[in-house]
Amino acid sequence: MSDQNMMEREEIQSKVMRAGRRTYFFDVRATKAGDYYLTITESKKFTNDDGSYHYKKHKIYLYKEDFVEFKENLEEMTDFIIDEKGEEVISERHQKDYKKEEDMELSDSDDSSDEENSTNSFTDVDFDDI
Q: Residue 39: is it exposed, middle or buried by C-beta count within 10 angstroms (0-12/13-18/19+)?
């Protein structure tokens, strides 16, 4: 039996989660002994200068004996992040169409004077972008 057929035979259940340029695959697979384990695969799309693209994948194998501790650690760390920083995303600068809220407000307001706009644009310099 080919490796591809073996991989397809081992896959018991799958779930896909799309998140921007990343896709996460949760796959239940079977060991040779017939027991189950989980693979979590992160796939991220990269576009080359010529317009072609490729994917980089990272995979985690998670076995039943580690489920409880893994789940506890994941929950502890995600709770910590939410408790410390809340659920709102602080920065979306990694997205191509990111615009600051204040930039959008400035472009929407037509009744501002030229002097006010030049002052705002000068003071809105973000040195993190340099």
A: middle
